[in-house]
Amino acid sequence: MAFETMAWNAGEVVLIDQRRLPGEEIYLRLKTAVEVAEAIRDMVVRGAPAIGVTACMGLALGATQLEVKSRAEFNERFADLGRLFAATRPTARNLFWAVARMQSLVAAHPDKAPGDMAAILVAEGERVKQEDLRACHAMGRHGAALLEGPSRILTHCNAGGLATAGYGTALGIIRAAHAAGNITMVYADETRPFLQGARLTAWELHRDLIPVTLITDSMSGLMMRRGNVDAVVVGSDRIAANGDVANKIGTYLVAVAARDNNIPFYVAAPTTTVDLDTPTGDTIPIEERDPDEITMMGGVRLAPEGIQVANPAFDITPARLVTAIITETGVARPPYTESLAALVAAAS
User: 311 CB contacts (<8 Å, ≥6 apart)?
Assistant: First the structure.
């Protein structure tokens, strides 16, 4: 995995532009907090853990550029930065966790001068990145242990190094299992309409020499029915306290097909994705994105001009369809209200 999803470099936030993959591997050097927020909104970077880390770095970048005369003014301006980032994408839990973490750090150091506080925030951004990397490797170990020998895995969207600080959640499990000699094939759903599976997951696995077969979203049920899949492993953007899972649109249908074919359906996510303040998936906000993501592709129109379009970016998989939720602190099983709370407590 010879790429870096995000980095802090000489007072800039550097992001690999995921919109350009797999054709071009281009890194953007972002010089302001507004540019970083726009990169999150425009899906230069995506995936809940990666959004969280990037938001921390973006907030730190903004803090270094605040021209203020007092600490009170710094606090007010930093709160504005928090609102800027919180408004970018509504579903990913890690985004709001990141904003809250950085704001709590500011509150914890009321006597620091603005410049010193900004330096502390820069260091915290790097600390969050390293914590996410460790969490991904821990999830990889926990998840790989659940697979029973050589396995054929189906995954949806991209929950790999590109969706995290590196290594991945769902793909972290696949990477760990492959290192142990236990991956015979990965089936990657293309994941319409943004094609994260085709463009990103297939790119990550292919360059790591992990066997991968790209399929359309509508093929996953047939693959399971034919006996080609031993387990499904996906990531998540937000997990409610009861175990309901918000993930990329189409995940719910994959989970239904897995249950109908008696195939385990695993969700991999750090505890920072678990939202214990949200009782069920019914109240998780679902982002609605630009209709052009569905009606256009590569500048070519795929649907009639003026057609009505629905483009929710996520769906909710009910907890009853989830075999287990794999976090960095262990594996949660039903009843999730108890097991998830225990794993979140273990992480704090």
Answer: 193, 288, 289, 290, 291, 293, 294
